[in-house]
Structure formats: structure tokens, C-alpha cells
Design goal:
The strands form two sheets. Strands 4-8-7-6-5 form a five-stranded mixed β-sheet. It is an alpha+beta fold. It is elongated, with a radius of gyration of 19 Å.
């Protein structure tokens, strides 16, 4: 059963930087001269959407009272000193707002490596199941049913928790799996692995 974990969403915005994670090669990630002016975390999160909850958005830096009191030059920022990033309130996304980026290799891997799982849910490993799974990923993400795994030069990696409803002989059964994605800018998610294991 899906539970709406969050109606409160934010977008990370750096008004001094229009570079986003989408601009970089997926294999190599964030690199180059831009990292001399903007940190990897700020680029990875720039223009991305997150549920406004702990473990679902990049964590802000915690400053001591002494650091705050001694900040005469207004250097305290969201993620680090001199950070330009801000959290902007946005409406909770609808399913039509989300775009999935699914490299062909990830689809092939799903059908090759997880075909027994798919059959165990009552489905056939085909395009019909892929479309069903993609819709469930979008639905779960919009409900805030995910957690951040890490933030690095490849972006913000999340596990989306997906409930797959069994069919055929598996009707009335539900299977919760985790699906791995990278959060890209403006409502895009790029697939790491469609089924990464049990949630």
C-alpha cells in the first residue's frame, strides 16, 4: 500500500550557476574547471527536486553558534561556507511532471538478470512489465517513497521503494523492491538499476 510520505517539496537552486548534473558524461561525472568555482555537491543538486524531509534531500551544513556569531561576512551557506544554493518551495510533483532516462543497457540487464524475479511476480519479462515498473517508480518518487544513498560526482543517488502487485497466480500478493536512480534536474530521474533488491 502506497503512503504519501511528503507533500512538501523543494528545488535546490544556485542562481550563480546554471550547470547541472545532466551536463556531464554519465560515466565520468562532474569534473573540469567548473569544480574550482562550485563544489560537486552543489552541482549535483542544482535544479533537482526533493521531498523536504531528512534523508530525502541533501543535508544542510550544521554550524555551531560560534560560527554563526562570527560570520561577519555572510559566508554561511546552505551546504558550506560561501555556498550560493537555496531551497525553493515547489509543488509536489505529479506523475506527468517526471521524465525517466532509461539507457538501453539498463533495460537489457533487467530482462537478463531479473527475469526470474519478474516471473515470480506473475509477469513476463517484456515491454509491458517495463512500462508497469516505470510507472510504479514515478508514482513512488512523487509520493516521496525514496531515500538518498549518496551524493558524489555522479549526482544524487536514490533508492525508490516500489510496490509491485502480483498478477495471475500471484494476485493479492505485493512485493516491495528498491529501484536505483540518479536525480537529475527539473524532474528527471536516470536509471541505475530497475530492481536492486528487496526493500
Amino acid at each position: 500500500m502506497l503512503v504519501n510520505w511528503s507533500n512538501d517539496w523543494i528545488q535546490v537552486v544556485d542562481e550563480l550557476n546554471d550547470v547541472v548534473i545532466d551536463d556531464f558524461d554519465y560515466e565520468k561525472g562532474i569534473q573540469g574547471p567548473i569544480t574550482h568555482k562550485h563544489c560537486v555537491k552543489c552541482i549535483a543538486a542544482n535544479q533537482c527536486w526533493f521531498a523536504n524531509e531528512k534523508n530525502k534531500k541533501p543535508e544542510a551544513m550544521e554550524y555551531s553558534v560560534e560560527q554563526v556569531l562570527n560570520d561577519s561576512k555572510n559566508r554561511i551557506g546552505l551546504y558550506h561556507y560561501n555556498c550560493h544554493c537555496k531551497e525553493i518551495d515547489i509543488p509536489a510533483p505529479n506523475e506527468s511532471d517526471i521524465q525517466l532516462i532509461c539507457p538501453k543497457g539498463k533495460v537489457n540487464w533487467l530482462f537478463k538478470d531479473k527475469s526470474e524475479w519478474i516471473r515470480a511476480f506473475g509477469y513476463k519479462p517484456n515491454e509491458e512489465f517495463l512500462e508497469y515498473l516505470e510507472n510504479k517508480v514515478i508514482e513512488s518518487y512523487c509520493l516521496g517513497q525514496y531515500v538518498i544513498l549518496r551524493i558524489d560526482n555522479h549526482g544524487v543517488a536514490i533508492n525508490v521503494f516500489v510496490d509491485i502487485e502480483g498478477i495471475g497466480e500471484k494476485t493479492n500478493k505485493s512485493y516491495r523492491v528498491k529501484s536505483g536512480w540518479m536525480v537529475f534536474s527539473n524532474g528527471k530521474l536516470k536509471c541505475n538499476t530497475f530492481i536492486g533488491g528487496w526493500a
